[in-house]
Amino acid sequence: MGSSSSSPADGPTQLEDKYYPEWIKNPENIKDLTGKVALITGVSTSSGLGFYATKALALKGAQCVITVRNVEKGEAVKADLEAKLQEDGVKPKIAVMKMDNCDFASIRSFTDEFKKQYDRLDIVCNNAGVMGLDVQMTKDGYDIQIQTNHLSHFLMTARLWPLMKATAEKYGDVTITQVSSGASHKGGPTVDTANLNNPHPSHGFLLYLAPFVLGGSTGHWARYGQSKLANVLFAQELQRRIAAAGLQDKMKSTACHPGLAATNLQITTQKGGGMKDGAGYQKNGQSCADGSLPLVMAVAHPTQCEGGGYYGPHESQKGYPIKTKNENPLAYDEKVAKDLWEASEKAVGEDFQL
Ligand SMILES: NC(=O)c1ccc[n+]([C@@H]2O[C@H](COP(=O)([O-])OP(=O)(O)OC[C@H]3O[C@@H](n4cnc5c(N)ncnc54)[C@H](OP(=O)(O)O)[C@@H]3O)[C@@H](O)[C@H]2O)c1
């Protein structure tokens, strides 16, 4: 099914920023975040979406905590962020904390430590992710894509929820977003809530074509699509539960996607055998910085950040950020979302009560 691969490039393709530098400086796009604490997962390189989202949030005054599985990489990113923000006259507060999304014990240690160190949590960006990798079971017994991209973020959010809720009750404004992907709708993926480890979840006809366009196998992409649809379902169900708890004026749950952004994601996928030419494919997309803007909009736009909202580039693969709609009807299916919530609670071994 897969196509032959060329040697993976060392890093992402360099594409010009069309929107980011101006967009983040316009006060109509990002509200003042002075005093707020923001948590962004998966910020281990200066070429990832998390890097540019953190930079934008810190520029507006947020104290940012970035999570990484390799603290040395995180400290290098922190130094780079500080240097870049200081060029803009901002002295940011950035902290690096360890969290491995392939290990539920690591999520538990991280959340315990976070609660010891911080007395508020205003913004959460669940961004860490992998794409199109072979089936690999973590030590918790879950496939690497569903655990990294969804289950660990579900567990982290559940354990930090009391702090987020207390922050909302005290300051009145907490926002959480899940970084999904166009893969949540393209090709018609589904979520197998009865077996999150299904190596080949069912999908629409177009997903059969993914290997011809991208490389790898249909299974690589069906499992990625599943994990990214899970992100949107989680965001939607969380918003429904926020409303049911009467918290909708103080807390918002959103989801977003970056279009096609030139980051290490495609390079890592190619190295893992899931893609034939990651750097070449990136040339159809946009710069990493531009790709980070829907993520920033989803948590910090002064007027357009709405509970249940979905944000992405205006031309789908690239463009300026807009509020949009996921094209997969399953993304808004309440039964699937509820089943996924219950399957996720079972998988992580903890209830998520609001
Ligand atoms: N770039 C795109 O075109 C695109 C399109 C759609 C969606 N997305 C989504 O955007 C998000 C960010 O990806 P990106 O494009 O910025 O790629 P990236 O630069 O590769 O960033 C992914 C981040 O996730 C981290 N990560 C992976 N596995 C982890 C684990 N087990 N524990 C902790 N951290 C882990 C990586 O850290 P390590 O360095 O330790 O691996 C890295 O910091 C992902 O959720 C991805 O699915 C990206």
Automatic annotation (TrEMBL):
Q: Which UniProt keywords apply?
A: Oxidoreductase
The UniProt entry, under InterPro entries, shows: NAD(P)-bd_dom_sf, SDR_fam
Q: Name one Pfam family in it.
A: adh_short
Spell out the family assignment given in the record's similarity comment.
Belongs to the short-chain dehydrogenases/reductases (SDR) family.
The protein here is known as: Uncharacterized oxidoreductase C736.13
